[in-house]
Specification:
128 residues, six-stranded mixed beta sheet, globular
Length: 128
């Protein structure tokens, strides 16, 4: 009986550690238009403020394909452009192809909309 209880506790602890590890990669970001324009791709015109570190990820692409349907139903283009929402997700380098050339660019992979952004959180946006 004690052996089975110990096994259950070890399995439960392992599951908790695994779940915590998965969430540790998630962050909260305020993405917005950075005001930069260019003539040749790649030139993503977005940046994202990492709320955990205060660092700005420049030139980030925003992938909203993984958002839940209710978040996709929001008028996201304007909200993302102006930095009006806090987005849950991860920033990872992903391949993008332009004019036959492949580039590895930072991509904010959005998994959810957390809340409205505060004015102080969107201070890095050009379209405040």
């Amino acid at each position: 009986m004690a052996k089975h209880l110990a096994e259950i506790l070890v399995l439960t602890a392992g599951t908790c550690v695994a779940a915590t590890g998965a969430r540790a990669d998630q962050g909260s970001y305020v993405p917005c238009d950075n005001g930069l324009r260019c003539v040749m791709a790649p030139c993503p015109s977005n940046s994202a403020l990492d709320l955990a570190t205060g660092k700005i990820v420049k030139g980030v692409w925003i992938d909203i394909d993984g958002l839940p349907q209710q978040d996709k139903a929001l008028d996201l283009s304007d909200k993302l452009y102006a930095g009006k929402v806090v987005v849950a997700g991860t920033v990872e380098n992903r391949p993008h192809t332009f004019n036959g050339k492949q580039y590895s660019l930072p991509t904010l992979v959005a998994t959810g909309i957390e809340r409205a952004a505060k004015d102080s959180e969107r201070a890095h946006c050009s379209s405040r």
